[in-house]
Structure formats: C-alpha cells, structure tokens
C-alpha cells in the first residue's frame, strides 16, 4: 500500500534527479517529471533501487495543460500527494540589454509559471494530506547583475510566490518553503563553463576555478547537498517551518 507520495519536477538530471533519489528513502512513491524520457528512466531505476515506486511522466511543464495531466496521473496512480518539489527550470544567462522578449517569456514559462500552475493544481491533494511544497529559487535573486538579470528576476519572483502560497498554506494546512542554492556543479553548469571558457581565453579548468575564487567560496556545491535540504523540508521534523527562504550557497551571499 502506498503511504506517501512525492512529485519531483526536473527529475531527469542535476538537483532534481538527486532529490528524487534522496526522497526514495522517505516516501513510498516518487512521481518523476521532466522533458527527457531517457534520463527519466535512469532516475526511475535509481529511485526503485533506493526503495520507492517510480512513476515517470515525460512532459513539458511550460505548456499549461501539463500541470493538469501530471497531477491527474499522480492521483490516478497513487491516490494522494504528500509533497511537491518544484525544481524544473533553466533560465538563460544573457545580458539584460540583449535578451529578447521571447527569451524572457520562455525562461519564466517553466521555472515560474510551470511551478505556479502545478502547485495550484496539486493544492487540494496537498490540503488533504497536510503536505508540503518546496520551490527552487537561486542566489542570483539576492545579488542581481546585468549578465543574468532574467535568472535573478525569475528567482526573486519564485521566492515571493512561495511566500504567497505559504500564507494560504497556514490556513489550509499546507507547508510551503523555498530553497536558494548558490553555485552547484551540475551537468548544465559544466556545459555552460565549456562554452564560456574559450570565449574568455580560459581553459575549462581555469574557468571552473575562477568562479569560486571570485564568489569567495571554497568550492561548488553538490546536487546531493541540496537534495538533503529538500528532503529535510518535506520531513516531519520541519513541519513548523513554513514561509521560509533557505540559502545554501557556501557563503557566497555575504549580506545578512
């Protein structure tokens, strides 16, 4: 019998994949959503090995109908939702003076609006289970720069959105928080460095070393470290924590 169900978006790689695998130790079933079917199957195998029943849904949460489809399938398969972890979304790092309207809209379509729609659609199920929601923001929200203005603006909007949901959650018995990670070494970050380094006359190794030094941190974070925090936030131990925005950035943001 399925006793607890977590829905994880962006589960095909990086932080989403690490979170899905980590949650398999605590939940009976994990619903895995992303756009890459092949990588999702790899995550599903790891989730099953870790002890939970996986449900794979290859869909694009930028599309308005996707949220309805995902939550409908999760409830049809397992009858409940106890946690929703909104991790999907990559926003392009393009200078604010060069980024087009289409690029802005595409960047916000998944990470902000996809998460918003999914949370709204899952809300009744989360009320029934007294469940938890976690939104994925990012440290750029706290230190915006022209070169990644869209990342900063989207992440700031996500933190605000989580606060708004948490206010309703106090009334409805749904816990809502956001996580604000700094520089985490994912496949996406490594790919960015491989393109960025030659354009700045650096080797990839030099570029990889440059950012932590400039950010004043000792190293990059690992996806599994973020996953552990996500798991804590949807655990019984964290139930009184709601409306919080938790930074995990190796000390990158120096302000209080």
Could you please describe the fold and organization of this structure?
The chain folds into two domains: 5-184 and 222-246, 3-Layer(aba) Sandwich (Rossmann fold), CATH 3.40.50; 185-220, no CATH class. The termini are far apart. The chain has 256 residues and is of the alpha/beta class. Helix content is 50%, strand content 14%. The radius of gyration is 18 Å and the shape is globular. A seven-stranded parallel sheet has the order 3-2-1-4-5-6-7, with helices on both faces. The chain has helices at 14-23, 37-50, 64-78, 101-129, 149-172, 187-199, 204-215, 223-233; strands at 5-9, 29-34, 53-58, 83-86, 132-136, 175-181, 245-248. The mean pLDDT is 94. Strand 2 (29-34), helix 2 and strand 3 form a beta-alpha-beta unit. Helix 1 runs parallel beside helix 2 and helix 6 (187-199) packs across helix 7.
What would the keywords be for this entry?
alpha/beta, 2 domains, 14% strand, 8 helices, 7 strands, single chain
Amino- and carboxy-terminal Cα gap: 46 Å
Spell the H/E element sequence.
EHEHEHEHEHEHHHE
Unreliable stretches covering 5 or more consecutive residues: none
Strand fraction band?
A: 5-15%
Shape type: globular
CATH superfamily of the largest domain: NAD(P)-binding Rossmann-like Domain
Q: Reading side by side through the largest sheet, how are the strands ordered?
A: 3-2-1-4-5-6-7
Percentage of residues assigned to helices: 40-55%
Please outline the helices and strands.
Blueprint: E1 5-9, H1 14-23, E2 29-34, H2 37-50, E3 53-58, H3 64-78, E4 83-86, H4 101-129, E5 132-136, H5 149-172, E6 175-181, H6 187-199, H7 204-215, H8 223-233, E7 245-248
Parallel strand pairs: 1-2, 1-4, 2-3, 4-5, 5-6, 6-7
